[in-house]
Specification:
The chain is of the alpha+beta class. It folds into 5 domains: about 5-90, 3-Layer(aba) Sandwich (GIY-YIG endonuclease), CATH 3.40.1440; about 130-245, no CATH class; about 255-385, Nucleotidyltransferase, domain 5 (2-Layer Sandwich); about 390-570, UvrC, RNAse H endonuclease domain (Nucleotidyltransferase, domain 5); about 590-650, 5' to 3' exonuclease, C-terminal subdomain (DNA polymerase, domain 1, Orthogonal Bundle). The chain has helices at about 40-50, 55-65, 75-90, 135-150, 160-165, 170-175, 190-205, 205-225, 225-245, 300-320, 340-350, 365-390, 390-405, 455-480, 510-520, 555-585, 595-605, 610-615, 615-620, 630-640, 645-650; strands at about 20-25, 30-35, 65-70, 105-110, 115-120, 130, 255-265, 270-275, 280-290, 330, 355-360, 415-420, 425-435, 440, 445-450, 500-505, 530, 540. Strands 12, 13, 14, 15, 16, 17 and 18 form a 7-stranded mixed sheet that branches. Strand 10, helix 11 (about 340-350) and strand 11 (about 355-360) form a beta-alpha-beta unit. The two termini are about 50 Å apart. About 30% of the residues are buried.
């Protein structure tokens, strides 16, 4: 691991101007490319405090052996140069938004003499127009089958096209009028390309104009008594309308826009894009990528937006046809990047007209953004579940943990402890259990912290570990039965009967040391302990001065993150429940003679503090356990407060 100070340039030698920079490894290979408004400020941030950097950024600066830069005159020029360098050098620490090969698209080979329509999966190529992606290949084939009666273009492969040209007979589609049969000369190249151009115009959003044109031709044919042709045009219009019905109208004003949203955690991010043309969703794309954070990035979302727009539309511009714009009139994002004006100018240059880059605030566009965000979250969840449900991946994770931590056996049972509170109030803890890499929710436990509530997270961790293992330690030393985990009276597993192979605590060295000390005091020697720090995903072993760093692509690290995140979720849910209950009854705290039990009875009877405040003395007195004197005291205490004042006291308390 290289020391970044060995190649750090002198601060005075770095220009305070916009530009693009490259980090190279000791062998001279470019490993990262970035841009900056101020090269001096950006590059100095990489070397100021390496320990505070995002894990991937820290790995990059410690892998590099040199840094160099190029000054440019404008931020738009910096965007273009950054994209070109990323494409040229393909740096390992830059994320590339390559199209997912699993998404099927409808491809039109415009570069061929007789363009072909077909379902395609794979990287984008020049000279080919793409429509989609679609969720399923059958959806493309169904849409294509509907449209071929209106736009009878070639769909066969090159071999089939050549063979039918040699034998002089068209294929079945040519006989049933779903292909114009250019292979046997029924139409020439120009006529066939005109059919394909109309097909592309329809899928590009010019649907209403196409329908109106066919309706006019149908009326003209009818007036000329060409009833067979009119009937054919009528069926064509019906086919177009059925194809249009498959694409829901989401924006009634005919908006052309791309809507972008993200879902992410500390290490990965999911991106979803909805392509809206003519107010209809014409396609959807998604990626799951590793997160990269620059040292001086303001927010995670703005950085994701910045990198996505520059790379995605740069790639689209390279493969776009000259008559097709790769950029819509609007790009809707969840948060504007720092250099939003420069990105908007660059997108406008790619389109050839003004492009608006903005965050939707209200109305249909805001509702559509929320839909795309839900899709991003769902895609991210599915990505994690695919990894979690993979038996091979779980086995690899457990084996990696055993090797990395030096355990005697794989940690088939893992327990994790997390603390939740707000500034020391309502301190609670959770304990979650994973067996064979899967959550065992029936054995989850939650704790209300008692003695250590005011002493901080380290003391709270120690209390939870002591309470969890005290009974186990006592019973394990006294029982002599052959099945120590089973209650002989009920035949069911005892509570906390089985110790984990690995105990994970949320935190760094101090938390891990506290848990290990408690286990040592209790005489528990068969449980390994580690701490997992949230920010940099470091694994801390008790008494070790330095943490262990697991590879970012490690299945072991992914398993530890899932265990820690589940413990955090369970703890936060309990904390919110406890805090909500306390805030609900806090307005009754100052009433003499009213204890916690009767407060709970009152709230349960009336359903809410608002209804209790509106109740009369007689109605309050009807509650079991509430006498006339207490009812009078409750009514007087609440009636003297305005609803606004009552709410304010609830919040403050």
């Amino acid at each position: 691991m290289a020391d970044p100070s060995t190649y750090r340039p002198s601060p005075g030698t770095i220009p305070d101007a916009p530009g693009v920079y490259k980090f190279r490894d000791p062998g001279g290979r470019v490993i990262y490319v970035g841009k900056a408004k101020s090269l001096r400020g950006r590059l100095n941030s990489y070397f100021a405090d390496v320990s505070s950097l995002h894990p991937r950024t820290r790995q990059m600066v410690t892998t590099a052996g040199a840094v160099e830069w190029t000054v440019v005159s404008t931020e738009v020029e910096a965007l273009q140069l950054e994209y070109n360098w990323i494409k040229e050098f393909d740096p390992r620490f830059n994320v590339r938004y390559r199209d997912d090969k699993s998404y099927p698209v409808l491809a039109v080979t415009m570069h061929e003499e007789y363009p072909r329509l077909h379902v395609y999966r794979g990287p984008r190529k020049k000279g080919v127009r793409y429509f989609g992606p679609y969720a399923h290949a059958w959806a493309i084939r169904e849409t294509l089958d509907l449209l071929l009666r209106v736009f009878p273009a070639r769909t066969c492969s090159a071999g089939v096209f050549k063979r039918h040209g040699q034998i002089g007979r068209p294929c079945l589609l040519g006989y049933i009028d779903k292909c114009s049969a250019p292979c046997v000369g029924k139409v020439d190249a120009d006529e066939h390309r005109a059919i394909v151009d109309d097909f592309c115009d329809f899928l590009s959003g010019k649907t209403d104009a196409m329908v109106r044109r066919l309706e006019k031709e149908m009326a003209a044919a009818s007036d000329a008594w060409e009833f067979e042709r009119a009937a054919r045009l009528r069926d064509d219009v019906a086919a177009l309308r059925r194809a249009m019905e498959k694409q829901a109208v989401v924006l009634g004003d005919g908006t052309d826009a791309d809507v972008v949203a993200f879902a992410f955690d500390e290490l990965e991010a999911a991106v979803q894009v909805f392509h809206v043309r003519g107010g209809r969703v014409r396609g959807q794309r998604g990626w799951v990528i590793d997160r990269i954070e620059d040292a001086d990035e303001e927010t995670p979302v703005s950085g994701l937006v910045d990198r996505f727009l520059s790379q995605f539309y740069g790639d689209q511009a390279e493969i776009a046809e000259t008559d097709g714009s790769p950029v819509p009139r609007e790009v809707l994002v969840p948060e504007l990047p720092e250099d939003a004006p420069a990105i908007a100018d660059w997108l406008s240059e790619l389109r050839g007209s003004r492009v608006r880059l903005r965050v939707p605030q209200r109305g249909d566009k805001r509702a559509l953004m929320e839909t795309v965000e839900r899709n991003a979250k769902e895609a991210f969840t599915q990505h994690k579940l695919r990894r979690a449900g993979d038996l091979t991946a779980r086995s690899a994770a457990l084996q990696e943990l055993q090797d990395a931590l030096g355990l005697d056996t794989a940690p088939l049972r893992i327990e994790c402890v997390d603390i939740s509170h707000i500034q020391g109030s309502d301190v609670v803890a959770s304990l979650v259990v994973f067996e064979d890499g899967l959550a065992r929710k029936s054995e989850y436990r939650r704790f209300a912290i008692r003695e250590a509530a005011t002493e901080g997270d380290v003391a709270s961790i120690a209390e939870v570990v002591r309470r969890r293992f005290a009974r186990y330690a006592g019973e394990s030393g006294q029982r002599q039965d052959p099945t120590p985990g089973i209650d002989p009276e009920t035949g069911k597993p005892r509570r906390f009967a089985y110790p984990p192979n690995l105990l994970v605590v949320d935190g760094a060295g101090p938390q891990a040391n506290a848990a290990a000390d408690v286990l040592a005091d209790l005489g528990v020697t068969d449980v390994a302990v580690i701490g997992l720090a949230k920010r940099l995903e470091e694994v801390w072993l008790p008494a070790d001065p330095e943490p262990a760093i697991l590879p970012r692509t490690s299945e072991a690290l992914y398993l530890l993150q899932r265990v820690r995140d589940e413990a955090h979720r369970f703890a936060v849910a309990y904390h919110r429940q406890k805090r909500s209950k306390r805030l609900t009854t806090s307005a009754l705290d100052d009433i003499p003679g009213l204890g916690q039990t009767r407060k709970s009875v009152l709230i349960k009877h009336f359903g809410s503090l608002k209804r209790l405040r509106a109740a009369s003395i007689d109605e309050i007195g009807e509650v079991p356990g509430i006498g006339p004197g207490t009812a009078q005291a409750v009514h007087s205490a609440l009636a003297g407060d305005s609803p606004g004042a009552g709410r304010q006291r609830e919040i403050s308390e």
